[in-house]
């Protein structure tokens, strides 16, 4: 693999691709979605075999993958996402005339994407990061995840078919296999303009540091994990204790707990703790151990549990099944809030079906928890309406600590839509002002540029007088289609 020639090809492709119309980019993405669908029968068995995830889940994940490709196709075809903003010249303004200034979002250039192990399709080769970068106008150099190499190669083939079918250069997507050294070399290449990553805290931080040590530092959009706390308020829990226990255990054990939105912390009032525990035990009974994504993830799950088992502050409600090369099982421990507050170790993610039930005495405890809580992808509050009204200052604090605040249901299950925010303050991510899911993910791979007094003919269509693309723009501070 010659990294320099990969980037040179990507850069050459970029200089044309960035000027392609939204319709043409959208056509390429729609073509890719069709090709992936038509290869469903060969992709699904590969992903099932390599990830140990059930066929139903992988089938659903392929649908989610093509669904998000079509979301971006529609977004770029419609075109308003570029945030075109025009302040026309005011030659007669006093004391000084105003120049004609027009601003929009332009793609960054070649970007490096690291695939995730826990979504072999939706967060991997043709997953959200790759597609949002291509939609923005950026070529992708993709570092395949070694946990699902054949799936990754097959999907990469589909991307190349789609490029060929729409007469686009192969340099727009390159599939790179290798280990840490290869991944780091990609991040260090001078032509790389951004990095997207989903995985461990250690991996994300290593890449973040590397990107910042470059002569030209570049943004790293690393999604590194979260414990997704759930706060149960007393009246709500008393009223719906059985159904909430069911919802919690369902979310905790979904996909053997291998989701970044898996709930690893649940705060329960002391008055309800015993009854809630009884319901949790009942719910957990029917859930068997199951294979995890790969032996490395199973080992890291069992090692983390073993480590926690040495902690005297914990009382185990459900111990994990004995250490296994591949299988993981649910585990649950109780801790008092006063102990939890003393050590940030209890905020660390255990990737798999493990949660700490933190027992609190009074609402004031939760304010202290909120102050100490590290950044999260999600926080969930289960409360009655009057309980929420009485706790506005607490909610105000919790907003500061997460990317998505839920008041119903469980955090697992991330809708791919226009309003979704999947990100959050550090250490959940390295870029709290961005999302890796949903339409706004495209903005990570752009930068604003303003053109001052540029001749009309040279302006991008999105910024020309007469609005030839018919998109929503802000002209003189007013949102308009004119
Ligand atoms: P990972 O170890 O972080 O690896 C993810 C990708 O990053 C792989 O391609 C890996 O390359 C690369 N990488 C890791 N460290 C690197 C470094 N220092 N320099 C350059 N590249 C590096 O994640 P994983 O294999 O998917 O799972 C391991 C752990 O990550 C899990 O146990 C879990 O804690 C966490 N995880 C979190 C999420 C989430 O959604 N937040 C998702 C999946 C996993 P190589 O594999 O080639 O080394």
What would you say this structure looks like, in words?
With about 475 residues, the chain is α/β, with parallel strands linked by helices. The chain has two domains: about 5-225 and about 430-480, Aldehyde Dehydrogenase, Chain A, domain 1, CATH 3.40.605; about 230-405, Aldehyde Dehydrogenase, Chain A, domain 2 (3-Layer(aba) Sandwich). It has helices at about 5-15, 20-40, 40-50, 55-80, 130-135, 150-165, 180-190, 200-215, 235-255, 270-285, 295-310, 335-340, 365-370, 385-390, 390-400; strands at about 85, 100-105, 110-115, 140-145, 175, 195-200, 220-225, 230, 265-270, 290, 315-320, 325-330, 330-335, 355-360, 375-380, 400-405, 445-450, 475, 480. It is globular, with a radius of gyration of 24 Å. NADP nicotinamide-adenine-dinucleotide phosphate binds near residues 146 and 184. NADP nicotinamide-adenine-dinucleotide phosphate binds near residues 200 and 225.
The major beta sheet can be summarized as: 7 strands, mixed
Number of strands: 19
The CATH class of the largest domain turns out to be Alpha Beta
The whole-number mean of residue pLDDT values reads 97
Structural class: alpha/beta
Shape: globular
Distance between the termini: 50 Å
Query: What is the helix fraction of residues, given as a range?
Result: 40-55%
| SS field, number of helical segments | 15
Strand order of the largest sheet: 11-13-14-9-8-15-16
Secondary structure topology:
Layout: H1 3-17, H2 22-38, H3 40-51, H4 55-78, E1 85-87, E2 101-107, E3 111-114, H5 128-136, E4 140-143, H6 149-165, E5 173-176, H7 180-188, E6 194-198, H8 201-213, E7 220-223, E8 230-232, H9 234-253, E9 265-269, H10 270-285, E10 290-291, H11 295-308, E11 315-318, E12 327-328, E13 331-336, H12 337-340, E14 354-360, H13 363-372, E15 376-382, H14 385-390, H15 392-399, E16 402-406, E17 446-452, E18 473-475, E19 478-480
Parallel strand pairs: 1-18, 3-4, 3-6, 4-5, 6-7, 8-9, 8-15, 9-14, 13-14, 15-16
Antiparallel strand pairs: 1-2, 2-17, 10-12, 11-13, 18-19
The protein binds NADP nicotinamide-adenine-dinucleotide phosphate.
């Amino acid at each position: 693999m010659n990294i320099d020639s990969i980037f040179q090809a990507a850069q050459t492709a970029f200089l044309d691709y960035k000027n392609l119309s939204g319709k043409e980019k959208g056509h390429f993405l729609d073509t890719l979605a069709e090709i992936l669908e038509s290869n469903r029968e060969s992709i699904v068995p590969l992903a099932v075999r390599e990830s140990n995830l059930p066929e139903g889940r992988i089938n659903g994940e392929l649908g989610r993958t093509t669904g998000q490709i079509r979301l971006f196709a529609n977004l770029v075809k419609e075109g308003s996402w570029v945030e075109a903003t025009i302040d026309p010249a005011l030659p007669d303004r006093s004391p000084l005339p105003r120049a004609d200034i027009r601003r929009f979002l332009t793609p960054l250039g070649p970007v490096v994407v690291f695939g995730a192990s826990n979504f072999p399709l939706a967060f991997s080769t043709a997953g959200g990061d790759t597609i949002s970068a291509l939609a923005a106008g950026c070529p992708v150099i993709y570092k395949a995840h070694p946990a699902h190499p054949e799936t990754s190669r097959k999907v990469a083939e589909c991307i190349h078919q789609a490029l060929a079918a729409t007469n686009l250069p192969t340099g727009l997507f390159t599939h790179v296999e290798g280990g840490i050294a290869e991944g780091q070399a990609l991040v260090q290449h001078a032509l790389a303009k951004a990095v997207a990553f989903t995985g461990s805290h250690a991996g994300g931080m290593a890449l973040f540091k590397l990107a910042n040590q470059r002569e030209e530092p570049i943004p790293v959009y690393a999604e590194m994990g979260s414990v997704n706390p759930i706060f149960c308020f007393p009246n709500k829990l008393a009223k719906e204790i059985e159904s909430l226990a069911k919802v919690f255990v369902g979310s905790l054990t979904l996909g053997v707990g291998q989701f970044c939105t898996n709930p690893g912390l649940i705060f329960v009032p002391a008055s309800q703790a015993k009854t809630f525990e009884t319901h949790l035990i009942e719910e957990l009974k029917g859930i068997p151990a199951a294979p995890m994504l790969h032996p490395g993830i199973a080992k890291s799950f069992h090692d983390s549990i073993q480590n926690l088992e040495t902690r005297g502050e914990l009382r185990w409600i459900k111990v994990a099944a004995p250490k296994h090369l591949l299988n993981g099982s649910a585990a649950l421990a109780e801790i008092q809030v006063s102990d939890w507050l003393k050590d940030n170790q209890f905020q660390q993610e255990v990737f798999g079906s493990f949660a700490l039930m933190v027992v609190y005495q009074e609402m004031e405890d939760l304010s202290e928890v909120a102050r100490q809580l590290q950044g999260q992808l999600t926080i969930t509050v289960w409360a009655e309406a009057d309980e929420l009204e009485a706790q506005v200052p607490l909610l105000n604090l919790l907003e500061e600590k997460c990317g998505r605040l839920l008041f119903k249901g469980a955090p697992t299950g991330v809708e791919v839509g226009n309003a979704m925010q999947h990100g959050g303050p550090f250490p959940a991510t390295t870029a709290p002002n961005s999302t890796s899911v949903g339409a706004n993910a495209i903005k990570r791979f752009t930068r604003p540029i303003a053109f001052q007094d540029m001749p009309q003919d040279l302006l991008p269509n999105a910024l020309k007088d007469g609005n030839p693309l018919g998109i929503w723009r802000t002209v003189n501070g007013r949102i308009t289609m004119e």
